[in-house]
Fold this sequence. Notes:
Chain A has helices at about 35-40, 55, 210-215, and strands at about 45-50, 90-95, 105-110, 135-140, 145-155, 160, 165-170, 170-175, 185-190, 215-220, 230-235, 235-240. By secondary structure, chain A is mainly β. At the A-B interface, helix 1, strand 1, helix 2, strand 3 and strand 4 of A face helix 1, strand 5, strand 6 and strand 10 of B.
Amino acid sequence: MPDNQNGGRHGKPETGAFFARDRAWHPPAFAPGYKTSVLRSPQKALLSLDGTISEITGPVFGHSMLGDLDNDLIHNFASPGKSAIGERIIVHGRVLDERGRPVQGVLVEFWQANAGGRYRHKKESYLAPLDPNFGGCGRTITDEEGRYWFRTVRPGAYPWPNGVNDWRPAHIHFSVFGHGFAQRLITQMYFEGDPMIWKCPIVGTIPDRRAIEQLIAALDWGNTVPMDARAYRFDIVLRGRRSTFFENRPEGN
Amino acid sequence: MVQDLSTLKETASQTAGPYVHIGLTPNFCGIGGVYEGDLGASMVNDKTLGQRITVTGRVIDGAGMPLRDALLEIWQADAAGLYNSPSELRGTADANFTGWGRSPTSDEDGVFTFETVKPGRVPFRDGRLMAPHISFWIVARGINIGLHTRMYFPDEAAANAEDPLLARIEHRHRAETLVAAGQAPNYVFDIHLQGEKETVFLDI
Ligand SMILES: [Fe+2]
């Protein structure tokens, strides 16, 4: 039995509440350098509360819902025999919790621009062309060691309306489920060595440089497939759970 | 020096951006053929137990405009008050109810929609019953970290009056921001990001 969050050492699902979120590590809601946040940020204090059963439980998704190409963005939108244009990469890593335990069986979804920095979306107006063989979305479910992997093309950088000349560094959006609804997380992965990371107002919403560095995937030379695709490794950490030392026993029993 | 706890830091959140629908509801935004359907579009089937309800609403910014590029997820107990989750140890939830839904806000008017059932009551940490509620999670461009809140029911005044979470809201009029409008089976839950009517958001 793997030592993991859903079935702990004793095979029982864990029911502890999650560690309080370190709000100083995450970007604040109001970050005026990212202009859209100005009118979309709550201004009143959050109501802080220890998690209840409504937050420590969460949905589970089965591997049976996945299609064969769900984790292959090079092919999952392409015509038969065709593939997406761009630098072929493999992105892989583990989903862990703050205690370092693998988070197994959780849904990881990802989306991105094509190699030219263009999204397949009707509101997208960047002049870079669409790739007829690239849709831009994929998903997978972590294995019993919390691992996930997918194949894609490296997304291009793109300009966006914020400052006069703001560009997003190459990035992949990630949506991650944990085992509790309170672990729900959306983030973005950046690429090692990209000087544009440090110019980006969205990256800059994160106050702590170490938290930014945690979003930068390392070029993983060992897992690079010769003559095929380079690999990048991106580990994701979700909130940890408290141990339930006394909580499963009503007081006095 | 003391012993090292060797805990990791949670990965920092980043905004879902303007194209979250590409990733999470691709069929809704015209990317067909990758997934059979959009996940979370359907929570119930013909056999689901309980009272069918519809929850609609909008997410409204500080200038009074509904967001048309937002994405919402809900999580709730089944009609008997059980969660469809491995961490639910009190019993087995209705197998015909997912408890989890996902909805984009529409391009035209920014309305989200969930077809679900009315949840039963579940206990607070100390065993007291909470009023029936649905947990919400909201992401969008301009939202740097997903917002958690809850929707309570307007026709549950007695249960709401003894709900431990609602009781924690210091300014009583703000508790009303968590109570939907409308009546069974059609409830309306507008979420205000800022201003006089700013919804109570949770750090939970
Ligand atoms: Fe993006």
